[in-house]
Amino acid sequence: MRILIATDAFPPVCGGSGWSTYELVKTLRANGHRVVLSRPVFGPRSRG
What pTM was estimated for this model as a whole? Predict the structure, then answer.
């Protein structure tokens, strides 16, 4: 199954919900699912 997870918290900069999401992604991938995680990038704007 293909799964998209959108979150604003993911390790290494996060709290408990970020680590829960990390473990969920690990478990889903270990069970053969294709997981894509999308999160915002905080910090200075990049040129491009």
Answer: 0.74
d(CA 27, CA 45): 33
Domains of the chain by residue range:
2-38
Question: Are the CB atoms for 35 and 25 separated by under 8 Å?
Answer: yes
Angle at 22 between CA 44 and CA 5, to 5 degrees: 75
The SS3 of residue 22 is: helix
Assign 34 to helix, strand or coil: strand
Kindly report, residue by residue over 2-25, the tens digit of the pLDDT.
Answer: 999 999 888 877 788 889 999 999
